[in-house]
Amino acid sequence: LAGGIILGVALWLRHDSQTTNILYLQLGDKQAPNTFYVGIYILIAVGAVMMFVGFLGCYGAIQESQCLLGTFFTCLVILFACEVAAGIWGFVNKDQIAKDVKQFYDQAFQQALMADSDTNNGKTVVKTFHETLDCCGPDNMIGALTPLWREELCPKKDSLLKNLIEPSSCHRKIDELFSGKLYLIGIAAIVVAVIMIFEMILSMVLCCGIRNSSVY
Length: 216
Hints:
By secondary structure, the protein is an all-alpha fold. It has one domain (1-214): Tetraspanin (Cd81 Antigen, Extracellular Domain, Chain: A). Helices cover 78% and strands 2% of the residues. Strands 1-2 form a two-stranded antiparallel sheet. It is rod-shaped.
């Protein structure tokens, strides 16, 4: 069940409309940075393997097989090591993921402002960012000094009140998007790690109990 929940969360994160709309973009020959998906793929793999290993543990407990329970324990140790490695990787790359996406957005934004912007897809990329994240422009001074692009690149608001409100910067929205998603991945990883620790303890207790009972 835990493996199924982790797999479901990972697949939801993988196919979330906001991240897929942004991370599938291409600026000329350059693909948007998709390092974010590495952590999700690890969660998908761990969730799928956990489901299989869970069946192995249940069958071993029903059959009271020390061999199957030992294999179950070994698989859990390997999965736990992968989980810790993924957690360390996510913590180290937490800020870098958002930074790479912001740099990709800035490059597209600069190309969208160029005179020959019709020859590249900079405007399309920028509009996708603006519509997906409901934001308008970067944090830097380019946005403040060139207000004419807002009419063309920023999403139109439905009401007059929304038009009067200053839209959020895309840099801040990108930070919020990926920090929120990475927190979800982190919470899922912690839950899995705690469950795995209990599974390892209980499988060893059961294995030792079967061994002791077989002596008598």
